[in-house]
Amino acid sequence: MKSLAILALATSFQAQTLTPLQDSDVYAYLDRPTSSIATLGVNASGTGAPHSQRSLIQFDLSSLPLGPEQLGSAKLRLFVIKPDPTYGNLGTGDVEIFRQGGTWAVATLRWSQLQPAESHGLFAITDDSADQWIEIDVTTLVREWLDGTYPNYGFLLQAAVEDPASLNVTFASMEVPGYRPQLVLTEAEVQPTLFIDRQDHQTVLRWPASTSWTLEQSPSLAPGSWSPVEASPTILDGEAVLELDPPSSKSFFRLNSDPSAD
Predict the structure, then answer these.
(1) Are residues 169 and 207 in the same domain?
(2) Residue 201 sits in which domain range?
(3) CB under 8 Å to 242, separation ≥6 — which residues?
(4) Contact assessment for residue 104 and residue 26, using Cβ atoms and an 8 Å cutoff
(5) Are residues 238 and 115 in the same domain?
(6) Which pLDDT score, from 0 to 100, does residue 211 have?
(7) 148 shares its domain with 19
(8) Residue 220 φ then ψ, to 5°
(9) Which of 65-69, 118-122, 175-179 has the lowest mean pLDDT?
(10) Would the pLDDT of 131 be above 80?
């Protein structure tokens, strides 16, 4: 008796880029945001952080048609600009990303409202960072916001180490067109379903119509044994439908989103 098997491989995914709902920095010494609304400062000033700066960035995820299980990755992108020399040159060091633990608003933001919860990693500022984009993976935190584990109050950026006071970096804020902070979201890879039926002594294969999926066939599942099915399907109501003569021996079919990989 002839037998068939169904396999499905990952499809391509899409990306969406968000810009901030609000962002601001806070200068510890004056206990308020800095006078420049175009920049987000993060620096260390030593024990007690008397002159340090920290920044908050919040993105609106509430209207996204995206559940936590659909999120493939989330990356925070920041553009490094050269600090105003009046307040020091670019200083190397590590910036640490925290989940902000409480509500805030730019107009009333004060140092005491900065509430670093759990850390979500570090990224390095080097001498070569100026005028460059920096990208940080924040998938775990964004997924926790999407599934309701934590309320979304945004990212808090601060120096990983206050002493020695070496870090001094400025990022472009949401007021700088073309260089606003970005949250780049990709959808999780989705596995399409391949259906196989027998109708009128024919093998009928159906799958979601997309040029990015290639129907392949193998007699054994062995690496290197897969080959594209040459026959062209008919597109009906968003499905690709292909009728084949029944194979003379065991055959396996799969949908492959990357035919170059076995």
Answers:
(1) no
(2) 192-256
(3) 204, 205, 206, 215, 229, 231, 232, 233, 234
(4) no
(5) no
(6) 57
(7) yes
(8) -145, -10
(9) 65-69
(10) yes
3-class SS string, 208-228: ECCCCCEEEEECCCCCCCCEE
Is residue 104 domain-resident? Answer: yes
Condensed to tens digits (0 to 9), the pLDDT of residues 191-236 reads 778 888 888 888 899 988 865 778 899 998 888 899 999 999 999 9
Which CATH number is 238's domain given? 2.60.40
Helix or strand (DSSP H, E) at 76: strand 71-81
209 and 154 together in one domain:
no
For the domain that residue 137 is a member of, what is the CATH number? 2.60.120
Residues 167 and 217 in one domain: no
Take residue 198 and report the two structure tokens written for it. 């027998």
Identify the burial level of 186 via C-beta atoms within 10 angstroms of its C-beta, where 0-12 means exposed, 13-18 middle and 19 or more buried: middle
Instruction: Note every long-range contact of 60-67, with CB atoms under 8 Å and residues 24 or more positions apart, other chains counting.
Output: 60/18, 60/21, 61/18, 61/142, 61/145, 61/146, 61/152, 62/152, 64/16, 64/146, 64/185, 66/16, 66/146, 66/185, 66/187, 67/146, 67/147
How many distinct structural domains can be found in the chain?
Answer: 2
HSE, side-chain direction, 13 A CA sphere, residue 104: 31
- Is 20 part of any domain? yes
pLDDT computed for residue 261 by the predictor: 60
Asked whether residue 3 is domain-assigned, the answer is no
Amino acid making up residue 124: A
Secondary structure (3-state) at 71 = strand
pTM above the 0.70 mark? yes
